[in-house]
Amino acid sequence: MKTVVFDLDGTLADTSGDLIAAANACFIEAGHGALLDPGGDAGTALRGGRAMLRLGMARLERAEDDAEIDAMYPKLLAHYARDIDRHTVLYDGAMAAVQALKGAGYAVAICTNKPEGLARELLTRLGVLDAFDAMLGADSLDVRKPDPEHLRETVRRAGGDPEACLLVGDSDTDRNTSRRAGVPSVLVTFGPSGEDMAALEPEALLADYADLPALVRDLIGAPD
Fold first, then answer.
1. What distance lies between CA 119 and its chain's CA centroid?
2. In the chain, N or C terminus with fewer CB closer than 10 Å?
3. Which pathway is recorded for this entry (predicted)?
């Protein structure tokens, strides 16, 4: 079965507000104040917890303080888990596109570098977990994106063929994953890093989820 795999943060949903709030809670507890800006630092937030912590520590001229970053990381996850969906929203048209792809006969899945438990909790709260045939997080396997096996195993668990899939994402990590797996990638341009996506030379860019089903057909063909 042909499969469309989605990244989560920055691709299906804008999770940056809740991520930044969790990071700032850690900085405040440590006596540093709120070091991150919900608007200006959204792109960093979508690259993950450690990226946010390192950016904040860089503003204290302590970017290489791995010990404090390591100490704050589990606290960040705890803050985030408690308030995971206060600001998070699904991007316009995302779930309509997922349903259109499923209706056409494609399998759909999520491959994210967010810890699996947090990803499941978020998708459950958003009411969309059951829309996907499989979902693998950063700790579901011994590897994670950009290792292509993370993508391939996601496809297998969705009942698909790893040689007949496509990855929809929003970062160089997603582009490198698809390249190493030898499959096409579609990178979205509506996120905070959208203007940088063309330089990664994906097979296609996506500005509107309404265009995704046609792009999928063009890149991997009609469903089996």
1. 9
2. C
3. Organic acid metabolism; glycolate biosynthesis; glycolate from 2-phosphoglycolate: step 1/1
- 195 pLDDT exceeds 90? no
From 82, 109, 140, give the residue that closes a domain.
Answer: 82
Q: pLDDT band for position 224 (50/70/90)? A: confident
Let me know how many helices (H) and strands (E) the chain has, helices first. 9, 8
| Residue of 166 and 191 predicted with greater confidence | 166
* Sign, Cα dihedral of 224, 206, 197, 15: negative
Phi, psi of 64 (to 5 degrees): -95, 15
Burial class (CB in 10 A: 0-12, 13-18, 19+), 50: middle
Catalytic residue among 7, 9, 41, 133: 7
Of the candidates 221, 129, 220, the one whose C-alpha atom is nearest the C-alpha of residue 181 is 220
Same domain, 156 and 194: yes
Kindly report the number of other CB atoms within 10 A of residue 77's CB atom. 16
Q: Are 5 and 152 in contact (CB under 8 A)?
A: no
CA 118-121-125 angle, to 5 degrees, is 140
Which residues lie closer than 8 Å to 220 by C-beta, 6 or more apart?
2, 164, 165, 166, 183, 184
**pLDDT tens for each residue of 51-74:** 999 999 999 999 898 999 999 999
Instruction: Mark whether 74 and 101 lie in a shared domain.
Output: no
Q: Which residues pair with 13 in a beta bridge?
A: 9, 90
Active site residue 7: yes
| 35 plus 116 within the same structural domain | no
pLDDT at 198: 95
